[in-house]
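User: tokens in, sequence out, please.
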């Protein structure tokens, strides 16, 4: 009798979650989010435009129906077994009509938000380690990056995310459009908004102090949150730096 083949899942694949936005019970579209932990609580990180249903720069409605989301459906991991999922629904507004998500101190101009997650006895959270943003690796234009999300809402193996590859398209330390973001060149699709973006290098990598580390394994640098293309016809997308997540969560801890 043959031994069952061992299935290996990248830990970062467990971090991204498929999202569906709905209004009055009707689906509006899909997006991506990922879980982080702060102060003993779990939060879902995604884009402002995904939950608000509006363009963050113009405030115009994104859906042709004229509806804005009032419900967030999250395909969560179940505790019973890795590789099992169920859809859990969370309202986007409380009983007073106030948004449940946490915005950046600058508001919607930073297209990243955090949604406090409700504990559920059947749900397993796999938070992305935010310390990966501190890996001593120097990101440079032209380096390959991975965007871990759900293009068109598609998944593999029921609900595992798809890793799409792009390249850093601007100097990561330079702000794009006066905001804490840089650009990547990638063939992304709808549904990937809110995806984590990482840089992975094996065999060695340059560091910020000008040295070069030779390593036998794979090193990972968390670069930020993808939020879509800067122009509909350009395959150039915006990535918000990890700092904005920390600034949002700092507001939560001080509330």
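Assistant: Sequence out:
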């Amino acid at each position: 009798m043959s031994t069952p083949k061992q299935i290996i899942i990248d830990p970062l694949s467990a971090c991204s979650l498929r999202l569906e936005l709905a209004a009055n019970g009707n689906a509006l579209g899909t997006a991506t989010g990922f879980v982080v932990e702060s102060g003993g609580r779990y939060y879902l990180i995604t884009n402002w435009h995904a939950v608000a249903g509006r363009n963050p720069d113009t405030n115009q409605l994104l859906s042709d129906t004229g509806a804005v989301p009032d419900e967030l459906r999250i395909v969560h991991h179940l505790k019973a077994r890795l590789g099992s999922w169920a859809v859990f629904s969370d309202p986007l507004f409380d009983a007073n009509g106030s948004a449940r998500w946490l915005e950046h101190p600058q508001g919607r101009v930073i297209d990243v938000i955090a949604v406090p997650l409700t504990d559920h006895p059947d749900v397993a959270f796999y938070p992305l380690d935010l310390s990966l943003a501190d890996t001593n690796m120097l990101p440079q234009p032209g380096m390959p990056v991975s965007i871990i999300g759900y293009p068109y809402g598609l998944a593999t193996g029921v609900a595992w995310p798809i890793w799409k590859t792009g390249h850093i398209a601007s100097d990561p330390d330079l702000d794009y459009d006066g905001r804490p973001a840089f650009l990547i060149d990638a063939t992304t699709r709808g549904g990937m908004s809110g995806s984590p973006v990482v840089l992975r290098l094996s065999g060695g990598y340059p560091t910020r102090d000008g040295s070069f580390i030779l390593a036998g394994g794979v090193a990972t640098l968390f670069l930020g949150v993808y939020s879509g293309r800067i122009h509909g016809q350009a395959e150039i997308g915006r990535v918000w730096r990890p700092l904005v997540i920390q600034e949002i969560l700092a507001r939560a801890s001080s509330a």
